[in-house]
Amino acid sequence: MNPEFQRFFDLSLDLLCVADAHGFFLRLNESWERNLGWTREELMSRPWAEFVHPDDVASTKVEYNRQQGGETVLYFENRYRARDGSYRWFAWSATPVVEPGVIYAIARDITDRRRAEEAERDRIRIDAELGERRRSEEELRRTNAAIEAILKEVGSFRQASPRVLEILARQLGWEVAELWLPDLRGETLKLSECWHVPAPAFDAFESASRECAFRKGEGTVGRAWASGEPTWFLDVTGLREFARGSMAGAAALIVGVSFPIMPDRKLLGVVCLLSTTRREQDSRVLQLLSNVASQLGQFAIRKQLEEQFLQTQKMEALGRVAGGVAHDFNNLLGVISGYSELALDELPESHALRRPILEVHRAADRAASLTRQLLAFSRKQVISPRVVSLNSVVSDMEALLRRLIGESVQLLTILDPRLGSAMADPAQIEQVVMNLAVNARDAMPEGGKLTIETTNAALDEAYAHQHSGVKPGDYVLLSVSDNGCGMDEATRLRIFEPFFTTKEPGKGTGLGLATVYGVVTQAAGHVCVYSEPGVGTTFKVYFPRISSLSQPEPEFARSSAAPSGKETILLVEDDSSLLQLSAEKLRSKGYEVLTASNGKEAMVCWESRKADIRLLITDVVLPDLSGKDIADRLAASGTGPPVMYMSGYASGSIVHSGVLEPGSRFLQKPFALNDLLQMAREVLDKPG
Ligand SMILES: Nc1ncnc2c1ncn2[C@@H]1O[C@H](COP(=O)(O)OP(=O)(O)OP(=O)(O)O)[C@@H](O)[C@H]1O
Ligand SMILES: [Mg+2]
Predict the structure, then answer these.
(1) Strand order in the sheet with 255-261
(2) Distance from residue 464's CA to the centre of ligand 1 (Å)
(3) Measured from the CA of 515, which atom of ligand 1 is nearest?
(4) Structure confidence at residue 241 (pLDDT)
(5) Does residue 491's CB lie within 6 angstroms of at least one atom of ligand 1?
(6) Percentage of residues in the chain with pLDDT exceeding 90?
C-alpha cells in the first residue's frame, strides 16, 4: 500500500478490514485494536466468526456469502466480542473487489447508538406497562375510595349495601351484583339485594334467584362462605350444584366472583358479581374485593357497637328515671293500701264504705304490680339468686303456659337433659318465660307454634366484643321462638324500652320486655332477639352457668303461727306515714313498737332499750345511716337482733347489687300489712 493511503488506513476511526474467502482477516487497521482490545495478530490468527456474537454468526455469514457472490452489501449490523468479554455493535458496509475471494469492508462502532435505542425501547415498554398497571390500580383505588365515601355517609350496613353493589358492578364492569344474607338460623343464604344493568334477561334472573337458598358450600355464594375468601368462577353455568346455572345461562352470564363478609369469622353476608364477558381470574380484583369485604365487615361491627352503646345508655337513663319514680311511688302506694287495709279491718261487714275502700285497695295493688315491673326493669329489685335448673322451671310452667297461649298455639319444649344449672332467681325466670310466651301468643293471633328450648352455651370473646356488656363465659341458654308476625328493624331497636308497645291502648303496657331486660341484666345474663317480619321471632336469654352442683337453698318455711306477739320491735322508716301505719298495725297485734325516723334516733332507742329489743325492722335508705349501718352497729354490741329490711329497691349499701345477704329478710315495698306481720313472726320464731 502506498504510504499515504497507509496513513489514512491507520488514522481512520472506523474499522477497516480485508478478508479472504476462507473466513480469515488478511489486514486490519489500528482502530480494531483500540476498539476491541485484541492485537491484530490475535484477530487474524483465528477465523473472524469466532469473534462474532453467537446470535449474529448466521446472519453475518449470509451477508458474507452474498458478498462473495458479487453483491454489494450496503448495510448490516452485528456484534463483536472485545477482549474483556463485552460486545461492541458494528454497522458494516462492504464491496466485492476485482481480486477474487478478497473482501474490503468498513465497520463503524455504533454501540452507543444501539444502547441508547435499546434504553429508549425499554423505557417505552416499561412506560406502557406501568401506565396499564397504573390505570387499573387507579380504577381499583377509585372503587375503594367510592366505597369508603359511602360508608362515611350512611348509618347502617343495610343502607350501604345497595350503593356498594352498584359501585362494584359499574366500576369493575360486571353486569349483576348481589348481596346474599344468612337466614334467621344462619343455615342458608338468601338474596337480599340485587343491582344489575337494566335488561329483561337480568330481571328474570333476579326474580328466579330470589327463590333460591344456598347452604354452606353450595353454589357460588355457598362456596365463598365455605372458603372464607373471594372465589372466582370461570364458568358459573357449569357448576355442578349451582342451582342458578341454567338461569344464568339464559341471561348469558358466564363468569362470577363471590366474596364473604365475615368480620371475626362470623358471616354477615356474601356478595356475588356476575358478568357476560369471559375473564380470567384477576388477582388484583380479588385483592380489592377482599379489602372491600373487610371494610364492610369492620363498618358493620362498628355500627352495631355504636348502636348498642347508644341503646345501653338509653336503657340506663330510662332505668334511673323509672327506678326513681317507682321508688317514691311505692311509698305512697304502701300508705294507700295500708290505710285501706286498716279501714277494712275496722269497718263492719255491712258498712256502705267497704266496697269503695276495697276498690281503692285493689287499685293500689294493681299500681304496685306496675311499679314492681319498673323496678325490675331498672334492676333495683331485690332478688334471691339460687342454683336453679331452667328445665324444671320450664316444665313446672308447662300447664300454665298451655292455658296462657290457648288452643290455637302449639307448645313445643325441647329441654337439654345435660343442661347445667343457672344462678338466678327462679321467680324471675318464670316472669321472663311468661312475658316472652305472652308476646309470642300475641304475635300469632291465627295460631302457630311456640318453641321453648334450653341448652348449654358459651359466649366467646368475639361475641362479647360485638355485644356491649357481655362477659365471655359459660351460660345456659333459654330460647323462645314463635312463627308469628315478626317485627321490623325500627320496632326491634326499641322493644326493651319501658312503655314501648305496638299494641292498641289497653292491650299492652310495654313493660313485658323491659322487665325481661332488667331481670336478665341484673342476673348478669344477656338477652338478644332475632326477628324477620312475616317469619317469626326468637328471643335468646342467657343466664350464667355454674359448674358445681350446689344444692338449691331451702325456702323459708311459711309459718302458720298467728301473726301476733308481745315482743319489742325497733322500727326505722323515714316516711312518717308509712312508719306510723306499720307501727299501728304491729301494735294492734300486741307488739311493743319503738319508732325511729333516722339512724340517730334508732341508736338512741337502742341504747335505752337494748335488753328488750327482739327485732329490727328498717328501711334500706335513710337520711343519715343506711339500714345496713344500723344493723351493723347493733350487732357490734354483741347481741344484735335479727333484721328485716324494707325497701322499694335494693341499694348497694345494704344488699350488694340487689343480692340479699344470707340470713336477713327483705320486704318489697309496697307490702300488705299482713305480710309485714307474717314475716316479723317468722323472723322472731326462727331459731338462733
Ligand atoms: N314475639 C314477638 N313477635 C313480634 N313482636 C313482638 C314480640 N315480642 C315483642 N314484640 C314487640 O315488642 C313490643 C314490646 O313488647 P313488650 O312485651 O315489652 O310490651 P307489650 O307486649 O306490648 O305490652 P306488655 O307486655 O306490657 O303487656 C310489642 O308491642 C311488640 O310490638
Ligand atoms: Mg308483652
Answers:
(1) 213-215, 188-196, 176-182, 269-275, 255-261, 231-233
(2) 26
(3) 18
(4) 58
(5) yes
(6) 38
| Smallest CA separation from ligand 1 atom 8, residue | 439
Percent helix, percent strand, percent coil in the chain, to nearest 5: 45, 25, 30
Q: Is the pLDDT of residue 258 over 90?
A: yes
Centre of ligand 2 to C-alpha 530, Å, is 16
Closest-CA residue to 581 (of 347, 309, 338, 396): 338
Q: Which atom of ligand 1 is nearest to the CA of 486?
A: 4
Contact present, 191 and 209 (Cβ < 8 Å): yes
- Whose CA is closest to 529, among 184, 192, 157? 184
pLDDT at 557: 40
Q: Give the residue among 541, 552, 559, 571 at the shortest CA–CA distance from 643.
A: 571
| Residue 572, ligand 1, Cβ within 6 A | no
Backbone CA torsion sign across 628, 634, 639, 644: negative
In sequence order, what are the beta bridge partners of 531? 537
Question: Tell me: the pLDDT tens digits for 60-102?
Answer: 988 888 887 777 777 889 999 999 999 999 999 887 666 777 8
Asked if residue 515 has its Cβ within 6 Å of ligand 1, the reply is: no
Burial 214-224 (b: 16+ CB within 10 A, else e): bebebbbbbbb
> How far is the centre of ligand 1, averaged over its atoms, from the C-alpha of 313 (Å)?
21
Ligand 1 midpoint to CA 540 (Å): 15
Query: CA-to-CA distance for 413 and 136, rounded, in angstroms?
Result: 58
Does the pLDDT at position 657 exceed 60? no
Stronger pLDDT, 604 or 4, i.e. the higher one? 604
Q: Whose CA is nearest to atom 11 of ligand 1?
A: 495
Longest Cα–Cα distance of the chain, Å, equals: 164
Core vs surface per residue 36-49: b (16+ CB within 10 A) or e:
bebeeeebbeeebe
Alpha carbon nearest to ligand 1 atom 27, residue: 508
Ligand 1 contact via 512 beta carbon (within 6 Å): yes
